[in-house]
Amino acid sequence: MIEIIDLHKSFDGQEVLRGVNLKIEDKELIAIIGQSGGGKSVFLKHLIGLLKPDRGSIIIEGIDITKVRRKELDLVRQKFGVVFQGGALFDSLTVYDNIAFPLREKLMLHELKVRDRVEELLEDVGLSGIENKYPAEISGGMRKRVALARALVTEPKIVLFDEPTTGLDPILLHSIHDLIVETHRKYGFTGVIISHDIPEIFEVVDRVAFLYKGIIAEIGTPQEIQNSKNPVARQFLTGARNSLIKDL
Amino acid sequence: MKKYIINIGARVIQIIRTIGHMFIFLMNSIYFIFSPPFKYRLLLKQIYFIGNKSVVVIILIGSFTGMVLALQIFYTLRKFGSEAMLGPAVALSLIRELGPVLSALTVTGRAGSAITAEIGIMRITEQIDALISMALNPMKYLVVPNMVAAIIVFPLLTAIFDVIGIFGGYLIGVKLLGLSSGTYFSQMKQYIDIVDIEIGLYKSISFGLIVSWISCYKGYYTSYGAEGVSKATTESVVLSSILILIWDYFIGSLYL
Ligand SMILES: Nc1ncnc2c1ncn2[C@@H]1O[C@H](COP(=O)(O)OP(=O)(O)OP(=O)(O)O)[C@@H](O)[C@H]1O
Ligand SMILES: [Mg+2]
User: How many CB pairs under 8 A join A and B?
Assistant: First the structure.
């Protein structure tokens, strides 16, 4: 279980997170929605210790990762796979080597096992045949899928997705969502998915959290969120253009 | 008035902070150079990268430096009637001074800027974050190989520069100005000490450290956006060049 307690973070006086509280159950898929610039990526980076909070704790399987040293933090990080917003593929490595990278460097697997595993993942994300291309040579949608494969290749217990589908065409969007559902069924990870794709994401996740003004303003099943009485949540979901969100 | 003083104070504090930050970065890198696991393949790749990017320019600049040097020094020596000393004069200037400095400046412009840009892009595209989130140490992957490679490659490039420069001087002194080839080389043997070569070596090794340190630091802490990277690249070249010249003076004054 991941428990986030009263998480605060500001940058040069700009308060981005102002007391986020959230419990994420094992093996659930949870979506974080909210406005652009609302601090979703910042929140996600705290979960893996890329940013240190000003205040608050993040407890992952009993360990408060905001308080531990680098070595222990690295042990917790072993459990994670991360799909970054831009993919964050290594430019200097081919698609194959990108996916193989965590296996070789983290798990020190034998090259034969690496090959099996990478091929399996390429199959999973439907990209067999492009393993020798470089990230610069493939399309944005393909890059997202490679990033997905790289995050899943070590069979992590927790996977963080930062906008895995933003900017993709509807067909690709659904195929990536299907991919997340399928791999979730296959590997059984806990998944935190940041998404702007409303309502499509509601078909994927168990719960939805709405991050607004630095706190979780609303949380529940997709059904509950869609029927929410919370005016800001309502407005965000319908994309109405009146004044409620203007003061942000 | 008060505002000015506050501004100046704030700037000074900022500068001191940055310097401290840079030194901590350097110390960390040096620590990681000696702590396993060692990334030999990355090291080889960076040695190839730095060397390959610079060697042609080094040859070009080295030969012309030697030639110009010979012309200039010959002109001066003739006034004292001691043209025979052309060989040692050219060689000493190259080995002690111009070889290390000019090759360092050349590599800064070629490879140093490329290193900053590459690491900077990895920073802004979250590739560095990706490494950290895999529980891997980005310093080991990005900084250490560049530093060790630079420390190995700089003396080698400097040696090439020196040799080419001396032959450039030979071309001018012997083929053009009519000195005997025996004089050019035998005098050189007599007047160049091992100490001179050591100084050249120390200089080039420390320049390698300086250039890789600054290039990696500027890339690693680049600010966001493509602008951030281009700014970091410029700053890294300027700062490396200034530090090379200052450090050169410092070592030179130690070994007079
Ligand atoms: N490293 C940083 N330094 C300073 N400010 C930052 C940093 N990272 C994020 N911010 C600021 O924090 C705010 C939230 O950014 P964040 O990237 O988390 O938004 P987001 O919710 O992910 O938006 P989007 O949906 O567009 O990705 C922004 O105003 C941003 O400028
Ligand atoms: Mg974001």
Answer: 45
* pTM (two decimals): 0.89
Structure tokens given for B190: 């007599």
Q: Count the helices and strands in chain B (H runs, E runs).
A: 11, 0
Per-residue pLDDT at A247: 47
Q: Is the pLDDT of residue A240 over 70?
A: no
Please say whether the dihedral angle defined by the alpha carbons of residues A80, A171, A225 and A50, taken in this order, is positive or negative.
positive
Three-state DSSP at A29 gives strand
Residue A52: pLDDT band (50, 70, 90) is very high
Do the beta carbons of residue B121 and residue B115 sit within 8 Å?
no
CA distance A85 to A194: 9
User: Per the CB < 8 Å rule, is B127 touching A90?
Assistant: yes
Q: Where are chain A's structural domains?
A: 1-79+190-248
Long-range contacts of A51-55 (CB under 8 A, 24+ apart): A51/A9, A53/A7, A53/A8, A53/A9, A53/A17, A54/A8, A54/A9, A54/A10, A55/A6, A55/A7, A55/A8
Structural tokens at position A190: 């806990």
Using a CB-CB cut-off of 8 Å, the residues of chain A touching B132 are 48-50, 77
For a mutational test of ligand 1's pocket, the pick from A8, A17, A40, i.e. the residue with the most ligand atoms closer than 8 A to its C-beta, is A40
CATH (one of 3.40.50.300, 3.40.50.10070, 1.10.630.10, 3.90.1150.10) for A1-79+190-248:
3.40.50.300
For helices A140-152 and A111-124, the axis angle rounded to 10 degrees is 130
Instruction: Please judge whether A50 and B122 are an interchain contact, meaning their C-beta atoms are less than 8 angstroms apart.
Output: no
For B60, the token pair is 């070009």
pLDDT, tens only, B200-245: 999 999 999 999 999 999 999 998 777 899 999 999 999 999 999 9
**ipTM of the complex model:** 0.90
| 3-state SS, residue A94 | coil
- How much is the mean pLDDT over chain A? 89
Q: Do B16 and B127 form a contact (C-beta atoms < 8 A)?
A: no
- Judging by beta carbons within 10 Å of its beta carbon (0-12, 13-18, 19+), is residue A5 exposed, middle or buried? middle
